[in-house]
Amino acid sequence: MFLRLVADSFTRRPKRKMLTLAALALGMAVATAALSVSLDVGDRLAQEFRSLGANLLVTPEADSLPLEIGGVDYRPANAGAYLPEADLGKLKTIFWRFNIKAFAPILETQVKTSLYDLDYFPDPPPEARYTFIGTWVNHKVEIPDGTTYVTGIEKTNPWWQLKEGRWFSEGKNECVIGRNFAVQRGKFRNRETQTEPLTRDDLKPGDRLLVYKLKSQVPVSLQIVGVLDTGGPEDNAIIAPLDVAQTLTSKPGQYRRLYVSALTKPEDAFARKDPKTMTPAEFDKWYCTPYISSIALQISQELKGTDVRVIRRVAEGEGAILTRVRTLLWLVTFAALLAAALAVGASAAASVIERRTEIGLMKALGAGSGLVGVLLAAEQLLVAFVGGGIGYSVGILLARLLGQKIFGFTPEPKLFLLFIVLVLASLITLLGSAYPLRRASQYDPAPILRGE
Amino acid sequence: MSDSPMFWRIVRRLITANYGRLFVILLALGAGAAITSALLNLQIDAKRRLTTEFRALGANVIVAPRETNANSGGDTLDQGLLMKLPTENAGKPVPAVAFLYVIGEVAKAGEIHHDAAVIAGTGGQGLTQVRPGRRTEYSAEFEKDPEACEMGAKAASQFKVHAGDSLRLRNQGREATCKVFAVVATGGAEDTQIFTKLAAAQMLADLPGRISLAQLSVTGTPDSIERFIAALAQRLPGADVHGIKQLAQAEGKLYNRISGLLTTTVILVLILTSLCVMAGMSNVAIERKNDVGLMKAIGGSVRRVVRLFLAEAILMGIAGGLVGSAIGILGSIWLGKAVFGVAAQPRWIVYPVSVGITIIVSIASAFPLRRLASVRPASVFRGEA
Description:
- The structure holds two protein chains of two kinds.
- Chain A starts with a helix and ends with a helix.
- Chain A is α+β, with helices and mostly antiparallel strands.
- Chain A has twelve helices and 18 strands.
- Chain A has two domains: 2-45 and 321-449, no CATH class; 55-310, no CATH class.
- Chain B is an alpha+beta fold.
- The interface between A and B is large, with 94 and 87 residues.
């Protein structure tokens, strides 16, 4: 009989129930969409922040003080310490290895250059010095567990974009030149006709470049395959595979600086504590949280003899903005929940107020206040479950749409959200109908039935 | 409206007949309005605030000598240029610091052995803004010293120097001393440098009145920063003004992503909230069947009846909208403080917009009443639903 009464109220006035259902479904759709976006967006945004470049810098511990101005190191060629390239695979064995998104070693040196034509002898190298950067591009790293990982400078420094041509391939004598270098070292092309004025063309992919170590007359011949635009000091430099730089500097298998781009959790008050003063439990918690400082410690444990420094401007800028945006999104989510709750509550309340006559009749027929309450609550719960379910599906679709539009990814539907949404829907409807229900169960049936 | 006193009397009765219902309607409409205005206000404010937050990344515009490159690092600019830099962009101050770099020899006071290090003379306002980092040691007392200087973390550990120690600086026979008031860790080249007063570096380099470059931290949207650079380049024909591509590109991308995310989420939430409020309100409205039946029975034309209910809906919309939006704006001021640490500025345009939206939603929720035109009074009174 109980079930029949509940079922009856649905079949008798489907339109009314549809409206309550619609309000609930819409409210829960907002909640689901906002919740799933907020849950996913933090990780997504953290990835986006990697376009700011590396947030960790690894240098030799025993290094002499670099004399760096505007990206150029003025130290004498042989000063300073180096690190072994072979160790780099270990980076992907640290506790937070999956948070290491990219890394690239750098070996820099000063060189002189001259141009090379097949028809002519090489120009004598002019006095001008240029920075020569050896690094990885699309490099396959052997990881100690037997797998390989592809990374390089184009991933750590995504703003290094090629204006022309392509990146060099490793194992070949190829290089990429900075945009300003291409203009400054442009070559005289029309040399066979003496009468014409000399015109100077920019260096282009396909040209050959001779690179001399300082105080050396033996050049390395490189083919230019691309022109690089970084907006930084690299625009004046020559960039080549790391092994070419190692040969040039006679430092086989070594590098000087390593850029690491890691996904991190923004630092909070706990992360700023000095790990040395932490209790063992605190230390474990700190170590197992992807704070930039704990990742830095883990890297320095794997790569012996290194000094791992946090690039503050990137790490802290990222942390500040990420925290703000996350709070903001949670706020929007909360607002959405609140709006949904109030509208659904209003709808639930209305549907109870409207049924005074029915309640009066039931009571006149001998139903107790408790039974009436339970009956109506059961009805509302049924609506909440159906509405919540529909709202969840719609919300997931909306979240997909949002994710795709903004980040080009689809957030995974999370089942635990369904649970949250159903609980929320039931709670809100019950709360919304609680007061009118209480009032209703106290009604005296007689005046209601008389229509007063 | 010839019988307007009667009309308004009926409207008043419609509204006040059932306080429970009135409360429910106003709550739904008011909450909708509050959330609309709070989100709109917060959203406008957040976009603007975001550009400010990006300045945690430090300098994004550099003024350097023209035609400079790695091999001719000696080019310098006139120090007077610092005075020609705009002090604000889009209402926000622009910190600008001039740097003069010298490779000199440095020793801790009392030690004989000197080591080469980069000495950066700095002048202008806002060094900590253009060069973000973390001061691991700091002493406010020594900062006031006329010979105060700051040391990069790497350099400090190399020379075993702490805040309060004195340094001897020399370059080609010229000498200076300075007192370290802070040690700063940036993770960049600055970690290896010593930051002195501009005049000290100019004396060491024997380049009075010259600077190597100026760094600016310009607040604004990516477009506004580009315009700033173009305008400044025109004003300083002798110098090369350029943005730092690393930051410009990432900032632009992040700004678009975040503001896109905010805008779409807010719009989505607003649409769904309106629909939600509308559905809830319609539920309340349909309940008026009896009233409509009665009015028709005593001779009200459908148009008049509908007009009555529309008037009621508009009044409710205005009341709910006015109160709710005001609460929402006040709320957003407080929320802005919670998120950004600075109270959000109320945008007055938000108020009428959100009241308008509320009235529209309220009218739209009265829409199902039109169907009541087909209500037959007789069947209502017989109690047939």
